[in-house]
Fold:
Amino acid sequence: MKPLYHVDFVREADGGYDCGIHLDPSHLIYQAHFPGEPITPGVCILQMSVQILSQVVDAPLKVIRFKNVKFLQILVPGATQDIVWRFRDIRLDGDAVEAQCVLLSGESVIAKLTVLCRKS
Structure:
């Protein structure tokens, strides 16, 4: 199966990292969620957060838990705005990794969350 998204850039910004992505609107998941009006499932947003954070810290990660998850708007594939995962307050403690994450589409905040992972 082809990937749901592609990371365009990872760059340091304001004491953290901004990661630009684009979603593949032709991905199979959007045919089911929802036909004619596709939106990105929340569970996919959570999984992408872990995968993208893994690129930021340059280590494979296994999620321990998510905290303070707030979905504020829907994430539509093929939107004309840039999609950016903004990681701030990244804490590394041995094998533990914790980060604050804000997902943006253009100027709109799509989701906010804290992710706690372990390097695997």
Remarks:
- Residues 5-119 form a domain with the Thiol Ester Dehydrase; Chain A fold (CATH 3.10.129.10).
